[in-house]
Amino acid sequence: MTRPRSTTSSRTRLARQRSRLPVPGRARGVALVTGAARGIGAATVRRLSAEGWNVVAVDRGSDDPRLPYALGTVAELQALANERIVTIPADVTDVEALGGAVEVAERRWGGLDVVVAAAGVIAGGAPAWELDPQQEQAVLEINLGGVLNAGRAGIPALLRRPQPREGRFIAVASTAATRGLPQLAAYCASKAGVVGYVHALARELAGTGVTANAVSPGSTRTAMLDESARLYGLPEAEAFAGQQPIERLLEPEEIAALIAWLASPASAGATGGDYPLDGGLSL
Questions:
Q1: Is 275 a catalytic residue?
Q2: Taking the complete model, does pTM exceed 0.70, yes or no?
């Protein structure tokens, strides 16, 4: 006769899971999101806030003179503000400014649990060796350097949480990290760098309770995709839809949903991953 299995451990796990669920009046945790003024960053801020997170939303809030298209504005950033969202204009190429945003999170809400590095730009429309050096520098400094700076400023704060901690570092990469896109070599290189950084970071954070993952979107309905269409001489961004097996563009909210899952306790077993949400573009 076999003895019935004890349910103590399963009950304990269930109790822990329930204790992590947001309840009215109590925040799920504290997150910092860069590139928050629009696109995937803004959708992520809204999603995390709706799920009960307190959020520090960070964006440059002004154009970069090296790039030929408009970036997010301070007005767009400030429009996100509510009782759970604090907005801070800060450039991801300035690690001290990001450090100041981290300090706001710790001073206002007592700590930081999640960093989402979503800031990104695009430039191209020419062979790699002909791309304007200033545009190339902007892409590398913001897309890759901005993620490294987010790690430099944010990860020490994640580690300041007492054990047992469940910190999350999440970077927005791209299908371009693994699929060569003509006339977008600098962009591809920057996103491949993001994925490589996350792989190494996951190993460095082993045993700390902090995980590191990347999300790689495909063609998503954002201002950046509008600029991509212009670079390729296409009439509109919708033209990219046919490249994806789902035969439509992705919405920023879809990417935000995956980021929110990676931020949650449900993703505790995931680290060092590059999660494609690309409508099959990478196939």
A1: no
A2: yes
